[in-house]
Design goal:
single chain, 363 residues, alpha+beta, Sulfite Oxidase, Chain A, domain 2, 2 domains, 9 helices, binds protoporphyrin IX containing FE, binds the ligand Nc1nc2c(c(=O)[nH]1)N[C@H]1C(S)=C(S)[C@@H](COP(=O)(O)O)O[C@H]1N2, binds molybdenum atom
Length: 363
Amino acid sequence: MVRVPVIGRRSDERAAAWLGLALGISFGTAFVTGLISHFLQHPPSWAAWPSSPSGFYRVTQGLHVIGGLATIPLLLAKLWTVYPKLFRWPPFRSPAHAAERGVMFLLVGASLFQLATGLFNIAYWYPFPFFFPDAHYWTSYVLVGALVVHVANEWGKVRRTVMTRPEDGLSRRGLLLTVAAAGGAVALTTAGETFSPLARLALLAPRRPGVGPQHLPVNRTALAAGVTPDASWRLTVTGRVDRTLSLSLADLRALPQHTVRLPIACVEGWSASGDWRGVRLRDVLRRAGVADDARVRVESLERGGRYRTSRVDPPHWQDARTLLALGLNGEPLAPDHGHPCRLIAPNRPGVMQTKWITRLEVW
Ligand code: HEM
Ligand SMILES: Nc1nc2c(c(=O)[nH]1)N[C@H]1C(S)=C(S)[C@@H](COP(=O)(O)O)O[C@H]1N2
Ligand SMILES: [Mo]
């Protein structure tokens, strides 16, 4: 018979309890920030998000991705301290024990799945056959459901641990310090993807502020999107309007121009600010004569692609900072940033800052 290694040493249990507490806080934060990201992109039809504070999504999604990455060492350490329990024999002693283990397997599986798919996604590696956001979204409910049951079961142990002094604190402290240092190192070498003072340390970040055409990263280039705008380009405004508009680039340039400093805040956690120059979206919509409660769909020249359109609700199109940008950082917009015309609005995920706009459909 295979002997299971001795487990349940007090120091291991204490380490597992502290790690569990940290993981609970981190997963809770990831769940909340993840849901914010989901509902910013898919608001219910009766709701609209505010456009302020302008950097809100930049912070929540930065926290989501950087916090999630920093959690990987914690999860690995937690599994290391408890793994003999996962393979204990017999697998079930009673129906209650079977249920408890079922929850454990869901919890471990969902945790590994979330951290692994999240990591692959921001690394632009898609080895899985499913659509990442859908799988990641639904698994987060499984994870949090299992987590709530697990915490209810283990809460007594955690409280005892946190409230009492260790008998053999040294080995536990060593493990916890190592894990904290590893998590901190991950955070420090990725946080610069959104927090520019740390940009030079962002060795592990796939995108960095300041790196790219016009000092801004690009996710999808004009070439990749198959977009080649020419002189015949026009912006049309149609739908629930008093007057249909068809504007050339020269027409747009003849309207009042404004400059705003706003970030692109990608769902993948990176973000970078630019000085955008262009026409206020509300100025164009008012010219067409739209109602105050109007909603707008902006449409790109891009033929396919998931992000060729996005919805703009009243709080965003009425905001003076929301531009149809024609320029960036003192130059005309580069093709990769959406020339001739792209949307830039405060508090909005990067995927909704539509590039190469050619049509505004009002309803
Ligand atoms: C290494 C850790 C993680 C990374 C790198 C990561 C990364 C990401 C990314 C890149 C997105 C944006 C998806 C998109 O809209 O294209 C996202 C969304 C999301 N994440 Fe995570 N994540 C991690 C961990 C977690 C965890 C632990 C949870 C749950 C407890 C979670 C829940 C969510 C939810 C609910 C969304 C919204 C999905 C949607 O828009 O439908 N994530 N995550
Ligand atoms: N038409 C179109 N617009 C788009 C995209 C796209 O694929 N197609 N990508 C979006 C994403 S994911 C991001 S993060 C921002 C990036 O803007 P940038 O390339 O100017 O930095 O553009 C958004 N606008
Ligand atoms: Mo993005």
